[in-house]
Amino acid sequence: MPTKLLNILTGINRTSLPSSGSMILVNDLYGAMPETRTTFLGRAPVDQAWKAAFDRLITLSTTKRPHGPDFAPYVDELTREVGSLIDRIQPDAIHAQYLGFALSLALARTAGSIPIIAIAHGPDVMAAERSAAEREAMNEVAAASAAIVAPTSALAERIDPLTGRRFTDRLAVIPWGIRLGDARVRDQPPTGTGPLSLVHAGRLDDNKSTITAIEALALTDQPHHLTVIGKGTLREQLEERALELGLQDRVHFDPLLPRAELWRRLPNFDAFVFTTRGLEAFGLVLIEAQAHGLPVAYSDLPGVREILGSTGVPYTPSDPHSLAAALNEMGRDFHWRKTLTKAALHNARRYDITATGRQLRELTLRVTRSAQQKRGRELER
Fold it and tell me: What percent of the chain has pLDDT over 70?
């Protein structure tokens, strides 16, 4: 007898294209999840190639409005739209991406007896730590959810106090992953102890702290080169700082690249530099770098340490002197870099997106069965 497909409704309240880590993650995740039928709620415009991971992609029509005086009416309007879609789709389960954001609130308010699994991504947790209103929204979604998924125990431990430790038993850790089969390692790893070709990729904002890598470069024993790939509000400031430090010939800025192009380029570098200074939900780019054979120097944050441990080189977050010392050691010792490459490839194998999809599907099956049993008991009364 064929297995019944699990019908899942999910979505992210953004334009439907691979514009961020979370959008890339859900594309990979639902494309890799076995025996499911996924309906995704997103925003126009839609990247037609990207939508292929979902069985159906529906664009939301409610005009998006940020937190402020218009937020409550906006959520009410979005809730009516989402409620109508739920009535039509009748999913077995709902995956609410981002704890407490508008779409998750709308899903929580209209799910009825359909079980919800809330999935934390990091920005939602940071928002709840900054704002009482965001924290209230997070708690509303958590209360409506049968399970709350975080990609690391470190992130789960930050969610727990934000929700008054009322939902500790609902927290589940499911590590994220990437499509490991698409990663390639260069045929001939670099040798010698000369200057390193370093790469940093991500948003250019305050939390990502790219400036730490630039300032560290001015403190290293060897004239390493750094390529910064990404976009963000601090691009001009970072370029000015590189110029002030006399690093204009050693720091190169490239725009945000499609993932396929980024992955094509990664094997050409000697090492990856990760500089986030605050909360990092998971750091998929770390696993992407390791899967391509790159040793990683990383800011020693709890979640990142949980993912990489001894397979990377930790340094004190936001401290260019500490990062410079780590880069000096990597530059001097080729044999150690070779060991780090082997450790990186081994560690990356733990984070295959197919494992993420399988674990999330198993959790979804458990909560749907529990919800069915609960409804059955209620009917017997």
Answer: 96
- pLDDT tens digits, 133-147: 999 999 999 999 999
Give, in order, the Cα–Cα distances in Å from 59 to each of 45, 79, 148. 8, 14, 25
Collapsing DSSP states into helix, strand and coil, what is residue 345?
Answer: helix
Task: Give the class (CATH, top level) of 6-177+352-380.
Answer: alpha beta
Burial of 155 (0-12, 13-18, 19+ CB in 10 A): buried
CB-CB contact of 361 with 322 (8 Å): no
SS (H, E, C) 1-54: CCCCCEEEEEEEEEEECCCCHHHHHHHHHHHHCCCEEEEEEEEEEECCCHHHHC
One-character DSSP codes across 350-372 = T-BHHHHHHHHHHHHHHHHHHHH
To which H or E segment does residue 251 belong?
A: strand 251-254
Q: What is the DSSP string of 173-228?
A: E----B-GGG----SS---SSS--EEEEES--STTTTHHHHHHHHTTSSS--EEEE
pLDDT in tens, 336-371: 999 999 999 999 999 999 999 999 999 999 999 988
Give the tokens for residue 67. 């937190």
The C-alpha atoms of residue 50 and residue 41 are separated, in whole angstroms, by 13
On the question of pLDDT at 30 being above 90, the answer is yes
| Inter-residue contact 15 to 43 (CB < 8 Å) | yes
Say which residue the tokens 């008054």 belong to: 164
Asked whether residue 1 carries a pLDDT value surpassing 60, the answer given is no
| Strand order across the beta sheet in which 56-59 lies | 56-59, 36-46, 6-16, 93-97, 116-119, 147-150, 171-173
Sorted by where each begins, the domain ranges of the chain are 6-177+352-380, 182-348
The answer on pLDDT for 2 being more than 60 is: no
- CATH dotted code for 182-348: 3.40.50.2000
- What would the pLDDT profile of 179-199 be if each residue is shown by its tens digit? 999 998 876 666 666 799 999
Residue 36: CB atoms within 10 Å: 18
